[in-house]
Amino acid sequence: MISDLYINGEWISTKSKIPIYDPSDDSVISHISLAGEAEINLALDAAERGFSIISKMAPRVRAEYLRKAFEMMIDEADKIATLLSKENGKVFADAKGEVLYAAEFLRWFSEEAVRITGDFRTSPSGDKRIIVTQQPVGVSLLITPWNFPAAMITRKVGPALAAGCSVIIKPASETPLTALAIVDIFHRIGLPAGIINLVMVQPAAPAVSQIMSDSRVKNLSFTGSTEVGKILLKQAADRVMRTSMELGGNAPFIVLDDADVDAAVSGAMIAKLRNGGSACTAANRIYVAKNVSKEFTTKFTKAMEAVLMAPGMEPGAQLGSSVSKSERDKISDLVDRAIEVGGKILTGGVKPAEPGAFYPPTVIEVKSDNPILSKEIFGPVAPIVTFSTDDEAITLANDTDYGLISYVYGGELRRTLRVAEAMESGMVAINRGVISDPAAPFGGYKESGIGREGGFAGITEFLETKYIGTDF
Ligand code: ADP
């Protein structure tokens, strides 16, 4: 297991170390090296050199590095998923699913690297040629969260390398081991030194400020909370730095009265419990039409009660632990507060005894003004609200500063699509509990972010558009 910084193609150990825990039993898995100011300077120098290499590399060559990394990641999926499950707490099935999904970003962007387009036209007045080309933006800082320690790395590294950018990765300090395992794949396939660099830091703020204030860094791709995203946007403004922001979510899950209730229950289980609910795409507020609410709530509660909560690597485990006790306690506090103001617990709602950062599958009936509906829960807690008309559901669903994803279950297509189109979110799932796909644009409206990852849009976050005009 690797625990060192990766700078200029070398593993660097430092004296300053922090422990990494398995949150399902509080045991220490590893101690990782932390970067100080000196190591960050080394990473900045290396990334600058790496940029001069990758920006001149032929697209096909960049594509082939990504393709090789994809293949190695698939070959080693079980090993990486085991590490991921241990440091994050999620169950092995979720971890394996994430690793395969993460690898797909490398494949997708290996295919995109050779399809960066441009344009050549005569100007409307005929006085010049308009040549439009796209160039890599430059050294990019990639900051990732703990909830998807593999996929959030490849979703950024894939397009960065495809576009011709070098990177400095700053993974979440709770889950750096998976990030290191992925970087090691690029090391072993022989990616030239300096193109990928990884620094672990604690606390994050001073180190990130040091990197962001360096004029060699041209771009920030951040995935994390809206709160931290706003801080970084303000810092980016000082240098008018390019940013891509994948921030928090507060996804509504709407069940219309003509929906297939059993399908809606299955979809809600996936949308709520995938990754233990710690996903920005997790169904955060379930809105059910009055005349199907009893059937939906009864069946959904029964399904939530049947979930096996256990350490992530235990056979059959369906819900693992949160990433840490402090994250688990945030979930528990939200539920306690929701109960205080009238929420009715149908299952769960009680913090289990030690050890481990567990929180049980919880269903809670609430009124539409319960404060839990305005917070990103990030755990296996499903608040249910009933509504009377489609328009009421639309109003309730859009009553949030977030706008990442919405889920709509309905029967008649015209009606379901009308609701889907009215959602103020960057993504809408119709009659599905999960729609994330490396080939589709992922991103949010409103305070859920700026920019898109994956799809055809993902690579453009790492490209500058250049217009060249001629005298003929
Ligand atoms: P999450 O709750 O998903 O961990 P955060 O926004 O707290 O979301 O963290 C996402 C990433 O941002 C992590 O890598 C974290 O270390 C980093 N981070 C947290 N606070 C700051 C900060 N003030 N400045 C820069 N990076 C930060």
Q: Report the portion of residues in β strands.
A: 15-25%
Shape: globular
How confident is the prediction overall: mean pLDDT?
Answer: 98
The CATH H-level superfamily of the largest domain is: Aldehyde Dehydrogenase, Chain A, domain 1
**Percent range of helical residues:** 25-40%
CATH class of the largest domain: Alpha Beta
As for the CATH topology of the largest domain, it is Aldehyde Dehydrogenase, Chain A, domain 1
Rg calculated over all Cα atoms? 23 Å
Count of DSSP E strands? 20
Question: What's the CATH architecture name of the largest domain?
Answer: 3-Layer(aba) Sandwich
User: Major sheet: order of its strands?
Assistant: 14-15-16-13-12-17-18
Task: Tell me the count of domains.
Answer: 2
Q: Strand count, sense and closure of the main sheet?
A: 7 strands, mixed
Structure classification: alpha/beta
> Unreliable segments (pLDDT under 50, ≥5 consecutive)?
none
What small-molecule ligands were found? adenosine-5'-diphosphate
Distance between the termini: 60 Å
The number of helical elements comes to 13
